[in-house]
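Morning, I've got a small favour to ask if you have a moment. It would help a lot if you went through both lines with me. Thanks so much in advance, here it is.

***
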Amino acid sequence: MKISVIIPVYNAEKYVSKAVESALQLDEVFEVILVEDKSPDNALQICQELAQKYDQVKLFQHPDQENHGAGASRNLGLEKVTGDFIAFLDADDYFLPNRFTAEKELFKNPKTDGVFNAIGTEYLTEKGKEEFLSNINDNYLLTVNYPAEGNEVFRGLLGLTQKIFGSFFTLDALTIRRSSLESSKLRFNEALRLHQDSDFIMKLAHHCHLKSGIIDQPVAIRGMHDDNRITKIVKYSPQYNQRQFLFWNSLYEWSKTLTLEKDASQHIYLQKKAFELSTKKGLSKTVDLLVTILKNPNILRTKYRFTYTHS
């Protein structure tokens, strides 16, 4: 296997060396693509040193050398890769030695476009641990509940399977055939500053045949620290609701261009509508809610039940 690992780098001078070296220790890794996104810290210099030290490490910045976010940085990385397979790694996370163990077997089947695995959690600071446990409250192992592949992965991520599929798997645990990604013409939504990874995974699960790999033990570790933006957003706060609306609206606009199963398209619409309502205030919010309930009472079965009391 010739795997290209894309690492977007922002404000990660303390962690990026470990991330890069965790990838380079794996025989399957053909190259590491660093995309430095105008970090406020010393990350650029660290990246330059890594590129000088290791022939497999290639460093890029955006043409204007400005900050464009993780989605745009990953898209730039996708333009630069030359390997047959693509993996992603956040600059404050790292791979474990078994990262591509499942891939070496599962990609022997030409039907398999992508493989996803489980990742673990490491608390790098006490404050990061506190914020993670209070706002995310996730388990140590981020994984799914049972093996799955194909359309069941897409439906599972939407919560439409008979059995509870489980959490989102993350980019750190995902490997994709480069040819499959190019065929789908899928890229990250650069308008999303948060949740572009979840948005990408949902769309990928529809366009490509994904298969679960190692789901009962971690193949990578996510680092939780003071600067994790996602852990600072309190669930069902106005900021959380707005971010969720942007995420579901991205999926909704994408779904309008496709012929999805009816329950899938309805679920995406109702989630989008629920968080759209949660961002409104006053009389217009009440009227819009009543109209929506009359048209489709299933709106009350969405996450809106947690947010409708916010004014």
